[in-house]
UniProtKB/TrEMBL annotation:
This is alpha-L-fucosidase. It comes from the Bacteria. It comes from Spirosoma agri. One of its GO terms (cellular component) is lysosome. The lineage of its organism: Bacteria, Pseudomonadati, Bacteroidota, Cytophagia, Cytophagales. Belongs to the glycosyl hydrolase 29 family.
Length: 536
C-alpha cells in the first residue's frame, strides 16, 4: 500500500530541485558522522550544556578546545568505508548545537582552528568525498548554545530557546547567516544540507539556496524521521537517520551496537518503504573509528558487494513485505527483488522454497540469487544450486539454494536477495489507513481502520497490531508486534476494534497499525502512536 501524503507535515519553503529529490530516492543509503569537541568526554553530543551550571559551560567552551587534537583523523578511511558499504553520500556535522565549528570560520573563536590541531576538518572531509566520488553533505545546527551563552543566555535551554534569545535575535540571525554563507561559498558544490533546528530554519534554507540552488535540503524540507522508520510506504523522498549504537557521538562505555544483520535489515526496510537510510557513526576523540563500528560497516560492505543492484535505483513494490520477505522493484523495468530476511541459520548448500503472493510470472520470467550462478556449490559437487520457480494457483513458488561461500565457517547470517526478472503484480492491493485511536469510557482503546478501496481479492479480514513505540536508541530495537484477532469484512468503510485496557496498560507509549488479509496476503497499514498511555 502506497501512501502519498505522510503523517509528517512539510516544513516551510521547498526549493529543492525535483531531480535532486529523485537522486536521493536512487541513492538510498548514506553515512552520518557526529563528531564534536565533547567527544573527549564521551558524553551526549552538545546536550550536556542544557541546564548546565555556568562553571560547566565556561570550562566546556574554554578548556575542551585546548585538548582537541584528533591526530588519527583520516577522512579518506571513513569515505572508503562508506563507499564500500554502498553509501552514496555522507552528512558531516559541521557544527552541532554546542556551537563548536569544524571549519575555518571567521564568525567565532570556538572552533577547530583554535585547537592544537589547527586544520580545517570540513575542508579535509570535502576533499576526501570528492576524491572517492561520494556526494558531500553538511549537517548544520543554527541553534548555537555557546553563542547564546556569550550573549546573555546563562541558563541554556532548548524548549524556548528562541524566545529566551529575544534580546539578541537580530545578532543571532546575522551570525547564522554568515556561517551558512561561509559553508556555501568556501567549499565548492555542496550536494546536501541537513538543518537540525527550527531556530532560523527558513533563513538557513534561503541562504543555502541563494548560493547553491542545486543543494538538496533534507531535514528542514523532507520527512526525516529520527531513530525510527516510518510505518508507511511513501512516494515522496524521505530520509531516516539512526545511530549504530545508543548515542550520536562516540560513546566509549556501556554502548550497545546493533548487529550487522540488524543494520542491513533496517536498510532493506528503508528501501522497501521508498526512503534513504542515513546510518550514523561517531569517531573517537582521536578521529578514528573503533573496531565495533568499523567491523559493522565492513559486514554491510560485504552484503552490499553481493546485492548492490537491489539497493540503488529501486522503488517500492505493490506491497512492501510478505512476512519476512521484503520487496523492491527496479524503477524503470519489471524486475522485483525479494529479500529473504530473518534466516540466520540457513546452511550453505540447503535448498529452501518460498511462496510469493504479490508476484506472478510472464513467459520471459527469470529467477536468480544475486551474487551466485547456482551452478557450483563449493565442496558439494553433486548439489544442484540452481534457482527454480513455478507459477501455481496459490502464488509464485521459488526454490533457491544458498550456494555462495562468504565466511570461512560457511555461515552467513544476512539476507539473501532473489532477483525476479520480467514479472508482474499478481494482485491489486486494497487501500486503507490506520485512523487515530480513541480511549473509551471504560478505559479500553478503540482502534479504527478506514478501508477506502477494495482490491482484487475474494476474501478480506481486518485486525490490528500494537507494540511499545520503537527507537533505535533502545537496545531492543524492532520488538515484535502483538496482533489482535482478525475478522471478515465485505465492503469499504470504517472498521473498528477495542483492545481491553488490561492488555496494554504496562506501556507508557504505544504504536499501532491496521492490518488486512487479502486472500491470505497480509498487508500492513501505516503506523500511529499514542503517547503516555496508561489505561488503568
Amino acid at each position: 500500500m502506497l501512501i502519498t501524503i505522510s503523517s509528517f507535515a512539510q516544513i516551510g519553503a521547498n526549493h529543492n530541485k525535483p531531480q535532486r529529490e529523485e537522486w536521493l530516492k536512487d541513492a538510498g543509503f548514506g553515512m552520518f558522522i557526529h563528531w564534536n569537541v565533547d567527544t573527549q568526554l564521551g558524553v551526549v553530543i552538545s546536550h550536556s550544556l542544557v541546564g548546565a551550571s555556568p562553571d560547566y559551560v565556561e570550562r566546556y567552551i574554554s578548556e575542551l578546545p585546548k585538548t582537541f587534537y584528533p591526530k588519527d583523523w583520516d577522512p579518506e578511511k571513513l569515505v572508503i568505508l562508506a563507499k564500500n558499504a554502498g553509501m552514496k553520500y555522507i552528512m558531516f556535522t559541521t557544527k552541532h548545537h554546542a556551537g563548536f565549528c569544524m571549519w575555518d570560520t571567521k564568525t567565532t573563536d570556538f572552533g577547530v582552528m583554535n585547537t592544537p590541531y589547527k586544520k580545517d576538518i570540513v575542508r579535509q572531509y570535502v576533499d576526501a568525498c570528492r576524491k572517492w566520488g561520494l556526494a558531500v553533505g553538511f549537517y548544520y545546527s543554527p541553534e548555537d548554545f555557546s553563542f547564546a551563552y556569550r550573549n546573555g543566555m546563562k541558563a541554556i535551554t532548548r524548549d524556548d530557546h528562541w524566545e529566551k534569545a529575544k534580546p539578541f535575535q537580530a545578532k543571532y540571525k546575522q551570525f547564522v547567516e554568515a556561517q551558512c554563507k561561509e559553508l556555501m561559498t568556501n567549499y565548492g558544490p555542496v550536494d546536501l544540507f541537513f538543518i537540525d533546528s527550527d531556530v532560523l530554519r527558513e533563513e538557513v534554507k534561503a541562504t543555502v539556496w541563494k548560493y547553491q540552488p542545486n543543494c538538496l535540503v533534507t531535514r528542514g524540507v523532507l520527512e526525516t524521521p529520527e531513530q525510527y522508520l516510518p510505518g508507511e510506504t511513501l512516494t515522496t523522498a524521505w530520509e531516516s537517520c539512526m545511530t549504530m549504537g545508543t548515542a550520536w557521538n562516540y560513546k566509549p562505555t556501556n554502548d550497545h551496537y546493533k548487529s550487522g544483520t540488524e543494520l542491513i535489515d533496517i536498510l532493506i526496510e528503508s528501501r522497501a518503504k521508498g526512503g534513504s537510510y542515513l546510518l550514523n557513526i561517531g569517531p573517537t576523540q582521536w578521529g578514528d573509528l573503533n573496531e565495533g563500528q568499523q567491523g559493522r560497516l565492513m559486514e554491510i560492505g560485504a552484503w552490499h558487494f553481493i546485492n548492490q543492484e537491489a539497493v540503488h535505483n529501486v522503488r517500492p513494490w505493490i506491497v512492501r513485505n510478505e512476512g519476512d520477505i521484503w520487496f523492491t522493484k527496479q524503477k524503470d523495468v519489471n524486475t522485483v527483488y525479494a529479500y529473504l530476511t530473518n534466516m540466520p541459520d540457513w546452511p550453505r548448500g540447503e535448498r529452501r522454497t518460498f511462496l510469493l503472493k504479490s508476484v506472478k510470472t510472464t513467459p520471459s520470467t527469470e529467477v536468480s540469487v544475486l551474487g551466485q550462478t547456482g551452478s557450483v556449490v563449493e565442496y558439494q559437487p553433486a548439489n544442484d544450486g540452481k534457482a527454480r520457480f513455478e507459477q501455481t494457483p496459490e502464488g509464485l513458488k521459488i526454490s533457491v539454494v544458498r550456494a555462495q561461500r562468504i565466511y570461512n565457517n560457511h555461515k552467513w547470517p544476512n539476507p539473501i536477495v532473489v532477483k525476479l526478472k520480467n514479472v508482474e503484480a499478481a494482485v491489486e492491493p486494497a487501500h486503507f489507513k490506520t485512523v487515530n485511536a480513541e480511549k473509551t469510557a471504560s478505559g479500553n482503546l478503540k482502534l479504527t481502520a478506514d478501508l477506502t478501496k477494495m482490491g482484487s481479492g475474494k476474501t478480506y479480514q481486518v485486525g490490528f497490531e500494537y507494540r511499545p513505540v520503537q527507537s533505535s536508541l533502545n537496545e531492543e530495537f524492532n520488538q515484535k508486534w502483538t496482533q489482535t484477532d482478525v475478522y471478515p469484512i465485505s465492503k469499504p468503510g470504517a472498521q473498528t476494534l477495542e483492545i481491553v485496557a488490561n492488555n496494554i496498560n504496562t506501556y507508557d507509549e504505544i504504536e499501532y497499525r491496521a492490518i488486512l488479509y487479502q486472500d491470505g496476503l497480509k498487508i500492513d497499514g501505516n503506523t500511529q502512536k499514542i503517547s503516555k498511555l496508561r489505561l488503568e
